[in-house]
Amino acid sequence: KQEVTQIPAALSVPEGENLVLNCSFTDSAIYNLQWFRQDPGKGLTSLLLIQSSQREQTSGRLNASLDKSSGRSTLYIAASQPGDSATYLCAVNNYGQNFVFGPGTRLSVLP
Amino acid sequence: NAGVTQTPKFQVLKTGQSMTLQCAQDMNHEYMSWYRQDPGMGLRLIHYSVGAGITDQGEVPNGYNVSRSTTEDFPLRLLSAAPSQTSVYFCASSSRTGSGNTIYFGEGSWLTVV
User: Fold this and answer.
1) Chain A contact present for B105, CB below 8 A
2) Cβ pair B44:A101 closer than 8 A
3) Considering only alpha carbons, which residue of chain B is nearest residue A104?
4) B23 in reach of chain A (CB within 8 A)
5) Given a cut of 60, is residue A17 above it in pLDDT?
6) What is the structure's pLDDT at B7?
């Protein structure tokens, strides 16, 4: 059974700092991995999707990497801003369209 | 620009009552799913559907029922509400064409069972 963990559970950084969020999964036979952002009281917004054949994906200040063999993915946020404050979740897809989610990392970027 | 629409946003139920959470999408997506989100546990899949007339169970299906009579709608029914079903529920949809398509989520339904 696929299990997904995220470290740290919460992170607080000053504005402008670069930061890394970590995601680990137990079954490396994944179809793809997706990073989401969730604002309080809101649904999830997809940030980046990495296919199993890819090593990384970039969107603006965000860069997500994938190392299938070690069961790890990282989300790198450059030059963090207060507007980046949210919970970030990773999810892996082993088959079809069903995702297994991690518990999330709650990020606070202080002005 | 509706995307995935869930109703109601908030609901309080008494133990034993039944109710239906509504979910509709206007993107002609084949795949729809329901998740529940509990503190510290991430999102867990309740039921999903790969097309009209086809549904299947996810990780935590007990106490819930679904149907998919149209492509657009995927309601989730709580048969006899229990306090353990207090949670935030999210509906999601995606297209099955191509590989690894983005999943779109509704804004959630907060359910409290007392």
Assistant:
1) yes
2) yes
3) B42
4) no
5) yes
6) 96
**Interacting residues of A91 by C-beta distance below 8 A, sequence separation 6+:** A4, A33, A34, A35, A36, A99, A100, A101, A102, B43
Report the distance separating Cα B95 and Cα B72, nearest Å.
Answer: 12
Helix (DSSP H) and strand (DSSP E) numbers for chain A: 0, 11
pLDDT in tens, B2-54: 699 999 999 999 999 999 999 999 999 999 999 999 987 789 999 999 899 99
Looking at the partner chain, which of B41, B48, B100 has a beta carbon nearest the beta carbon of A93? B100
Identity at A89, one-letter amino acid code = L
Computed on alpha carbons and rounded to an integer, the radius of gyration of chain B in Å comes to 13
| Number of cross-chain residue pairs from A and B with Cβ atoms under 8 Å apart | 63
A96 confidence band (pLDDT: 50, 70, 90):
low
Tell me phi and psi for residue B37, to 5 degrees: -120, 120
B28 vs A20: CA distance, rounded Å: 36
Amino acid at A84: D
Q: What is the mean pLDDT of residues B55-81?
A: 96
**B43 near A CB under 8 A:** yes
Q: Of B33, B48, B100, which is closest to A49 when you measure between CB atoms?
A: B100
